[in-house]
Specification:
3 strands; alpha+beta; homodimer; 3-stranded antiparallel sheet; elongated
């Protein structure tokens, strides 16, 4: 049972796709603008774009002859939220461990 | 040129591996404890653990007959930071757009 998070994280597990996302956070761009900085044949680049699009992380729209691509914020936020939740539990645990260490240290002083 | 982020995001692109990470944020666990909630043969489960370990997201240590697994916080933080950076740029852009919209609206009122 593949969830959305599977697709989001899988889409982000590639430097070309992360570069496209990083570019699109500054605003929409055409496919040729997005492709330009990458030393890669267009068909390969389009496969990366397709993976981002099928993960729901970007959307594209043909305006005349130009295909414009824009980012979808929700999947990025969902992936970030998952990581943030794990970090909070983890940090809570570290806080409890450090409180325990302090407690043991104080008791050591008095013992 | 595969970066650490490739491995981190790829490791997180699977529900079993995310469940293991979520369990380990509450503290270390043995391989059998980690395996128990998953309806999956042990060899398949060990492959998932291996992927997390080779991505540097967990470490394991054999204590007597028991292999204990614990989480590594840094990779999680790096993955979260990357997403947070993108969100900040994105939100900055939305703020600028909304400031522009307000400006245009005010000018419309006076025009």
């Amino acid at each position: 049972m593949a969830s959305n998070l599977d697709h989001f994280f899988s889409a982000l597990a590639d430097p070309t796709r992360r570069a496209v996302i990083a570019r699109l956070t500054s605003g929409p761009a055409s496919v040729s603008e997005l492709h330009a900085p990458h030393d890669m044949a267009l068909p390969s680049f389009l496969k990366h774009l397709g993976k981002l699009e099928s993960a729901g992380m970007v959307r594209s729209l043909k305006i005349g002859r130009v295909r414009m691509v824009h980012i979808e914020a929700v999947p990025m936020a969902e992936a970030e939220d998952w990581l943030k939740t794990q970090r909070r539990i983890w940090e809570g645990r570290l806080d409890r461990l450090s409180a325990l260490a302090e407690h043991l240290e104080r008791n050591g002083d008095h013992g």
